[in-house]
Design a protein that fits this description.
The protein is of the alpha/beta class and about 450 residues long. It is about 35% helix and about 20% strand. The protein has four domains: about 35 residues; about 160 residues, Udp-n-acetylmuramoylalanyl-d-glutamate--2,6- Diaminopimelate Ligase, Chain: A, domain 1, CATH 3.40.1390; about 110 residues, NIF3 (NGG1p interacting factor 3)-like (Udp-n-acetylmuramoylalanyl-d-glutamate--2,6- Diaminopimelate Ligase, Chain: A, domain 1), CATH 3.40.1390; about 70 residues, Alpha-Beta Plaits (2-Layer Sandwich), CATH 3.30.70.2750.
């Protein structure tokens, strides 16, 4: 809306203005009329469009644009806000229904964009090997996606049988650097098979662990609702790592110094503040990147006033709230240890777990706080005060240490603490893809250990 005051010095100018306003008003009504007519036509077309499947139809808008309509958090509801004339329905396989063509193709790069939105790879641990690990040389539409916790020979057989286009393997099948691809190494053999079959392989691993609403939030939820906090917070990235504070005697000197500093780091942010009346100069604060720190300091040392007043501060990276490794939950409703065991077995779909009761604890002892870490969680859980630890595996001595502190430990075996999340992720991924893409959880994937 425009807001302005016009003073017309002549009747001709006033008349000209009225004509201009009339023309703008007519143009606005014409635009609105055309828009309403277009929307009315679209509503008619949508109401007459036959459903392309028994559960949903999908919009013909490009996938790359459609991605922008979805939430970036795992905690978002499947009932997603979408653009005008996209209807929301519930079904066993999808909760988002699109209007338009059901024959829409989905390219690999577009699927990767969806995966990045669900769990940014930047959340993964620095030591991890995540992302696209195998990419086919000949691009093809993605029609079938297979989810697995581990990529094994049995899972690869399953993928080839269903003509899979993309395997999402929670654990990266390629982790350490390799110098050759040979058949004698089982992981390299799987990579060769994927390349020959034109199957892409993607691994999210610790990005799923760390993201809010990911594997660890799912795992701790097995014991019921509670006040959940992150054990090891993920830190955000920042382009500036240091702050330089110094003083100059005049605006002219400040201008000269800043011109030299700009050469050191074009991304610096200048913050100026005028000193108190009794001060003898102007106090300046400049942030710079790590690579620009040394040349920036050398520049300031060439000037008398800055060199005598220079102080260097290291900036901490900001925490990303809700994201990180491990979870601690203060349960809304404390439960007996025996009940906690039954709950976690049901949540993980297991008939047996391994239990080590904490010193002085019994099956009737109350569980008020529980700390979890999917996979091998000893390093994350170490030192955390809780009534119960839940993880996939810990060493003998790590279990003894926890028990001595009065902490009960439940071990499910490594992948059993992670695998159940695949079904949850399947639903969250499926609603963000067109109906032409089938998302399937592997039936061949299982933990290598079993109780006999």
């Amino acid at each position: 809306m425009w807001s302005a005051a016009f003073v017309f010095t002549s009747a001709r100018q006033a008349k000209s203005s009225r004509l201009m306003l009339t023309a703008c008003r007519n143009l606005s009504w014409t635009f609105l009329s055309l828009t309403n007519r277009r929307l009315s036509t679209r509503r008619t077309l949508i109401s007459q469009t036959a459903l392309c499947s028994s559960t949903s139809t999908f919009s013909s808008i490009p996938p790359s644009l459609r991605l922008l309509t979805h939430s970036r958090s795992f905690l978002s509801s499947p009932q997603i806000s979408v653009p005008l004339h996209l209807s929301v329905q519930s079904s066993s396989s999808r909760s988002l229904s699109y209007s338009g063509h059901c024959s829409e193709k989905m390219e690999l790069k577009e699927v990767l964009q969806v995966l990045e939105q669900l769990a940014p790879l930047s959340l993964a641990e620095s030591w991890d090997n995540v992302g696209l690990l195998v990419e086919p040389s000949k691009p093809r539409p993605t029609k079938t996606i297979l989810l697995t916790n581990d990529l094994t020979d049995a899972v690869m057989d399953e993928a080839e049988t269903m003509n899979c286009d993309l395997i999402i393997s929670y654990h990266p099948p390629l982790f350490r650097p390799i110098k050759c691809l040979v058949q004698k190494d089982w992981k390299q053999r799987l990579a060769i098979r994927a390349v020959e079959a034109g199957i892409a392989i993607f691994s999210p691993h610790t990005s799923w662990d760390c993201v809010k609403g990911g594997v660890n939030d799912w795992l701790v939820g097995g014991l019921g609702s509670g006040q959940v906090s992150v054990l090891n917070q993920v830190l955000g990235s920042t382009s500036h790592s240091h702050k330089l504070e110094f003083m100059v005697r005049s605006a002219e000197e400040l201008s000269a110094v800043m011109e030299e500093l700009k050469v050191c780091d074009g991304g610096m942010t200048l913050q100026l503040s005028v000193s108190r009346p009794d001060s003898s100069g102007i106090h300046v604060s400049v942030t710079c990147s790590n690579s620009a720190l040394t040349p920036s300091v050398q520049t300031l040392l060439r000037h008398t006033a800055p060199s005598h007043s220079l102080s260097i501060l290291k900036l901490e990276k900001p925490p990303l709230l809700g994201h990180g490794q491990g979870r601690l939950s203060v349960l809304d409703q404390p439960v007996p240890m025996e009940t906690a065991i039954k709950k976690i077995k049901s949540h993980l779909g297991l008939s047996h777990v391994r239990l080590a009761l904490g010193l002085g604890k019994t099956l009737e002892s109350s569980v008020c706080t529980v700390a979890v870490c999917a996979g091998s969680g000893a390093s994350v859980l170490n030192g955390v005060k809780a009534d119960l630890y839940i993880t996939g595996e810990m060493s003998h001595h790590e279990v003894l240490d926890a028990v001595a502190k009065g902490i009960t430990v439940i071990l499910s075996d490594h992948s059993n603490s992670e695998r159940g999340f695949l079904a949850v992720f399947r639903e969250r991924l499926a609603v963000r893809l067109p109906d032409t893409v089938a998302v399937v959880v592997s039936k061949a994937d299982r933990d290598p250990l079993e109780v006999v």
